[in-house]
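TA notes, week 10

Several of you asked for a full example with nothing omitted. So below is the full record: structure tokens for the whole chain, then the designed sequence directly under it. When grading your own attempts, check the secondary structure regions first.
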């Protein structure tokens, strides 16, 4: 899956704050994302994030 820095990810499950949109901050074997609503940053393994993505929103 092609995920780039700056992409917004619509996830299947929401963050505990209730928002399910995250911004990609860093990519690699791990991906760092930030919640759009509360600003909390999370770093997870790539396969865990790719499994839970519903849609990749990208400005081109």
């Amino acid at each position: 899956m092609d995920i780039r820095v700056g992409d917004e990810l619509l996830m299947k499950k929401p963050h505990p704050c209730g928002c399910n949109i995250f911004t990609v901050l860093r990519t690699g074997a791990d991906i760092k994302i930030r919640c759009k609503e509360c600003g909390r940053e999370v770093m997870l393994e790539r396969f865990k994030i790719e499994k839970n993505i519903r849609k990749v929103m990208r400005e081109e």
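The chain has a mean pLDDT of 93. Use that as a sanity check on your answer.
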